[in-house]
Write a structure and sequence with these properties.
49% strand, 2 helices, mainly beta, 6-stranded antiparallel beta barrel
């Protein structure tokens, strides 16, 4: 009788453990940083297990996201929401290599073009900077259209349209904007460029680009 009861108890424990394992979301990786940082608004020290959609925020120290698809370096004072194959950057700076991961920053997507690609992306308010440390880094619109291919050693800063136009609005100066779009190697259906000005950067080329997304007709 006792053996039967012990066996039943073991079956119950095993069943509960299996149910709990199935109910728990799978881990997508580990976040590490010196000192403390925040994961989903809770302070942690040293490292923390990450789950899909986790909000990670660093303080005075940088950190790393060791994900199943890639390893991402995150700068100090950086806030992002992390998924297994992408990251939504709210502020700060991130760096990663390869093609299996992308950063979503405002209305832009940044992804490596091939295995040699190494991207560095930062966001400060509405200004987004994209640099290629090696290989080619592609900048795409929110719907996946090519905006710009950033070659190794180059950096570009993207800023919101100073005229305050919303996505889908019609260009005010079609001739000027078509000329700028052509100069940037883009189709006007993908992006309308308002201004392009040289900034200059050590080791490469930099430009600041104000943009307004438009719809093709």
């Amino acid at each position: 009788m006792k053996k039967v009861m012990v066996g039943n108890v073991l079956v119950i424990f095993v069943s509960l453990a299996m149910v709990q394992a199935l109910a728990s979301p799978p881990s997508i990786g580990i976040a590490t940083a010196k000192g403390s940082f925040r994961v989903d608004d809770s302070y942690v020290a040293g490292n923390a297990t990450l789950f899909e959609g986790a909000a990670v925020e660093t303080g005075v120290n940088s950190g790393e996201l060791n994900l199943s698809k890639t390893r991402v370096t995150i700068g100090a004072d950086t806030r992002s929401r992390v998924f297994v194959d992408r990251l939504i950057l709210d502020r700060g700076k991130v760096q990663w290599a390869g093609t299996g991961f992308r950063a979503l920053v405002g209305e832009l997507q940044v992804v490596g073009a091939d295995g040699t690609s190494k991207a560095l992306v930062s966001r400060n308010g509405e200004t987004i900077q994209v640099a290629s440390i090696s290989g080619t880094v592609n900048v795409l619109s929110s719907n996946g259209e090519m905006v710009m291919a950033v070659a190794a050693g180059n950096a570009y800063a993207f800023e919101a349209d100073p005229q305050g136009a919303s996505p889908g609005s019609a260009p005010k100066d079609k001739a000027k904007q078509a000329s700028n779009a052509k100069h940037a190697g883009l189709s006007t259906a993908a992006k309308t460029w308002i201004t392009i000005g040289s900034l200059g950067a050590a080791g490469g080329t930099a430009a600041t680009i104000a943009y307004r997304e438009t719809r093709s007709r």
